[in-house]
Amino acid sequence: MERRIHRWDVTVQEARAIQQRLRARVDRRDRIGRVRWVAGADVAFGDGKAFAAVLAFSFPDLRLVETAHAVAPLAFPYVPGLLTFREGPALLKAFGALRTRPDLVLFDGQGVAHPAGFGLASHMGVLLDRPSIGCAKSVLVGEWDADALGPWRGAWVPLVFKGKRVGAAVRTRETTKPIFVSVGHRVSPRSAIRLALACYAGYRIPEPTRQADIAVARLKRESGSA
Question: Which strand (E) or helix (H) includes residue 53?
């Protein structure tokens, strides 16, 4: 599934240049088609390794149909804004093991709501050439009006960074804290919100990424990593 665009064994300066180059490939228009299969992806770290899980679900009923795991050594330092260079190799291995070809991927991380406008969901979406959405639990960049966000499920307000809308604070469950949804690739801002809400299964976090988070925690635990 991966389109091999760049190496991962790069310097920090080379990583930043890669971000700048690939950011221009992000498509914020709807190029999705019919969504029959949606995937959730997440990564955990421990003992110098990255543990990745990608779970495929039928859509819209969100029935789990396949799980793929991968483990990869960490070869890139922790640098804020460049976490994809730590997460990417393991995630791509997991996607490579997935037989189901997802029509949409939700990532536990940022899309364009990122200092460089190119977070995990955008980076992976471009490499995989898959429609993708960032569904983050917290804000990385930007401001939003908490007072204007309604308490009902489906309420949302813009997330604004440097005068531009980069995403939305979205209430996925009544009266709970919002999640922060941003375009990854090949999805419009409004469709990103709509599809994130469509992946609701009773929890604050969309079901594909919620289950991916559980899966990586289990994988890490079973490996004996702290």
Answer: strand 49-58
